[in-house]
Amino acid sequence: MESTSNMFESLFEKAETFGKTTYEISKLKALETTTVVASSLVARLSVVLMLSIFTLVFNIGVALYLGDLLGKSYYGFFIVAAFYLIAGIVLHYFLHKWIKKPLADLIISQALQ
What we know:
Blueprint: H1 2-70, H2 73-94, H3 96-111
């Protein structure tokens, strides 16, 4: 009888150890996934930030150049703003699905790795 109780104690101890180990492994996997997703997003956001700064400076240059050609500097800014308004409308109505789905898939694939 005593050997049976020792066997059950040993079994419970092993089950407890297994549970703790499984919990630790789950925590480490979650930490790894979070780290991969966060580092990937930070790297991509830094590239997007640099491209945004370039685009901003370039657009100011184009607006000033167009304004110089048209005689009034603010005309160039109006033209550049109208271009972005039209581009935004086109992106919203026609390309919204083409941008949203791949971006969502990218985030999900990074999270599941």
